[in-house]
Amino acid sequence: MNAFLSLVAVLAVMLAAYVGTGVLDAKFLFGTVLPYAAIATFLIGFIYRIVDWAKSPVPFRIPTTCGQQKSLEWIKSDRLDNPHDTIGVIGRMALEVLCFRSLFRDTKMERHEEATVVYGPGLWLWIGALAFHYSFLVVFVRHLRFFTEPVPYVAVLLQRVDGFFQVGVPPVMASNLFLLAALAFLFARRLWSPQLRYISLASDYFPLFLLIGIAGTGVLLRHFVRTDIVNVKEMAMGLVSFKPAIPKGVHWFFFLHLTLVATLIAYFPFSKLMHAGGVFLSPTRNLANNNRMVRHVNPWNAPVKVHTYEEYEDDFRDKMKAAGLPVEKE
Amino acid sequence: MAGAHKFDQVEYYKPEDLLALDYRPPETGWMDTPVDFRPGTWIYPGKPKHLEYLDLANPRQWAPTDENWKLPENWKEIVLAGIKERLEKYRSFKIFMDICVRCGACADKCHFYIGGGDPKNMPVLRAELLRSVYRNDFTTAGKILGRLAGGRELTVPVIKEWFYYFFQCTECRRCSVFCPYGIDTAEITMMARELLNLLGLNVNWVIEPVANCFKTGNHLGIQPHGLKDTLTFFADDIEEVTGIRVDIPMNKKGADFLFVTPSGDFLADPGTYTCMGYMMLFHELGLNYTWSTYASEGGNFGLFTSHEMIKRLNSKIYAEARRLGVKWIMGGECGHMWRVLHQYMDTMNGPADFLEVPTSPITGTRFEHARSTKMIHIVEFTADLIKHGKLKLDPSQNDLLKVTFHDSCNPARAMGILEEPRYVLRNVCNHFNEMPENTIREKTFCCGGGAGLGTDENMEMRLRGGLPRGNAVRHVQQRHGVNRLTAMCAIDRATLTTVCDYWAPGVKVAGIHELVANALVMKGQKERTINLRLEPINEVEEQPICEVEE
């Protein structure tokens, strides 16, 4: 049901884009107003969310430690999984953000026979997540050729490497295939596993469908619905140089792609996609396990009602004296 | 057999019944599946007298099976205001409410889910119980789209569900290890329990120890003279085993260090043997130390109540160190105690600038890693002693033991004290084998009874939660003949005893310093023929050690 609703929502976005640009002639709305509005929403929303998180203090230093602590000199500490200083924390965060370190740890629980539970390696999610994020990054960087003049070398190089297989005209981009495969996998596992299906919300399927729509329309634009690339670039350059114009000859199908991208960008700050920013602020990962070395200060550390020694001795003085325990007041 | 027993007794549960696990979620969506308070899965509520003593909200008689929980009239307002306050005070809470992508990596990492199959024991769904309310009332999308955005209204059934499932989390943090964003269910459970406490919803197995600790200084409510008697009994047993009379310094001003351990070590076997171990070690080294009756608890059930309560109970340790004028503090073998001492104490009740950096009077080692809190773990201390060759040890005195080591949740995942205990164990016994890799160190499994769940009326959940650990123990029992599970946690020593009796019968539980003391060759001792359990140390037992039921 949640998946279906999300699919309908994404199809509705596409339909709107078709009606707006293929039937009516609202290309200015979809080609100029919408992208600007989406970018503005993204920037303001993203910054707002980060600032909003940052406004709440970190009262306690609560890293989740995943290796040996730094203690005695002759015991080797695990600097990356249990960092005790800033360099270690940077390393830990880099591993987490760039390599998805924690997902790499994943195990899969299986029951053998009647009474044995085993925990084998479970690397599929890690592979799927890496494939998605990195192929998306490659696709994103390749798209710089539409927004820049001259095109940065990295985008050109990536374009060449990506089309390495030289299949088809224009060449098929490996990253596109990886991206679609990864998205298909991430979607399939949500539907396939009863547990995942049970926990999945509409807001879990919606971005997946959006991304599949974006990648799908992108591939179709490259290989099947041939629109004039020069015109698309002219339009993109107009957007980035704040002189927006809609050149003639841009196919309505291109606006499907663009509208889906704009939707994703605008949706980003309101969604779970904010994990991209949030992971950097996660107190179980971004703090050093140096609790006993350096005092962590809680800005709102409030006084509490305690039971003082004096009160305690008042409660038990006679019994303490009878047992021969020293007391402060005779 | 089951007929004669009640749901709070182990014998009531047949392993084949507990193992008939079905991991398929129910037909109804989780928001539409009400909680079922069946006996054996929940814990009795806090008694009003304890809530009154602690000035906690809404003291009254009630039971989770009652239709009416006698909540305050404006309960909803209280909870929503409580959520808002905590979102503003804890970045952790805010972030963890917002960034979960429900990838499912945590799903099969929870011992309660593995042993029970209830989908709401998947960490992700446990958090969603609270997150759904957060989304509904605190996010734009949730306010507009409601259920479509994963929001749901806060109702009394939701509160009942929270009570059930947030007291089915042991705050062990295993899921947090696997989460790509480090989302820590312990943190979420702590927040949820704080919110529940605002309505007077808590469990007696937590709140009675808290009240005891506030008054008498320890969870068990042992009064000062009682503690002296207890330690004297231990000294008698030690004398019987070694021929040596150890001294018991108590509330002694001017000692080098204050020693604090969980009060579980005073009361229940096998923790008591570990406590005797500490006493023998300190005596043998001639250390100038002291016990305290006022700060006679290292553990802190405040951790399972609220941040405020952690601070209220923990304050005694520094206060007592200051009053007695000691130089530094040492802590015994306990799990959640070390989460508090390591991650909260200095921030809450520090700075401990009146103390000195802990320094071993025997080896001269300065424990620089504790230079701010001034408190070290006894296993760090002992490892340093052994490394410097300062202990005379005869590991063969533990030769009847085939040992494995259970990493306790908090020392492993909130501290990282992994190698020290292994180093000590390898030096005090000759037979040591690890459990499977994915069940130890940071991936260790909870005993199923942490965070205030180690009582009897929720026996079914304890046995279920203990299944993964019990299974791993049985594995090394079958493969290596392991008959002794060591752990440095008082709750482990109590609850794993039940878990092993049930899932790996024949394996007994011990603390590290019990084994240290048994191997320790003391000056002037008589010939050692029995261990601290008063069992022969070098006689082949008639029973085969590896007794396995298949």
- Tell me the overall shape of chain A: elongated
Biggest sheet of chain B, strands in spatial order?
Answer: 2-1-3-4
Cα shape of chain B = globular
Radius of gyration of chain A: 28 Å
- Low-confidence region ranges of chain A: none
- How far apart lie the N and C ends of chain B? 19 Å
The tally of beta strands of chain A, per DSSP, is 2
Distance between the amino and carboxyl termini of chain A: 75 Å
CATH topology of chain A: Fumarate Reductase Cytochrome B subunit
Provide an overview of this structure.
The complex is a heterodimer of chains A (330) and B (550). Chain A is 59% helix and 4% strand. In chain A, a hairpin with a 3-residue loop joins strand 1 and strand 2 (116-121). Chain A is built from 14 helices and 2 strands; from the N terminus they run H-H-H-H-E-E-H-H-H-H-H-H-H-H-H-H. The termini of chain A are far apart. The mean pLDDT of chain A is 94. The relative contact order of chain A is 0.16. Chain B folds into 2 domains: 2-202, no CATH class; 210-519, no CATH class. Chain B has helices at 15-18, 48-53, 75-89, 91-98, 111-116, 123-138, 140-145, 156-166, 174-178, 185-198, 204-216, 224-242, 264-267, 271-285, 307-324, 336-349, 378-387, 409-413, 419-428, 459-480, 490-503, 512-519, and strands at residues 257-260, 289-290, 328-331, 375-377, 403-406, 484-487, 508-510. In chain B, strand 3 (328-331), helix 16 (336-349) and strand 4 (375-377) form a beta-alpha-beta unit. In chain B, helix 14 crosses helix 22 (512-519) and helix 19 runs parallel beside helix 22 (512-519). The longest helix of chain B is centred in the C-terminal third of the chain and has 22 residues, at 459-480. The model of chain B has no long low-confidence stretch (mean pLDDT 95). Chains A and B meet through helix 2, strand 1, strand 2, helix 9 and helix 10 of A and helix 3, helix 4, helix 6, helix 9 and helix 11 of B.
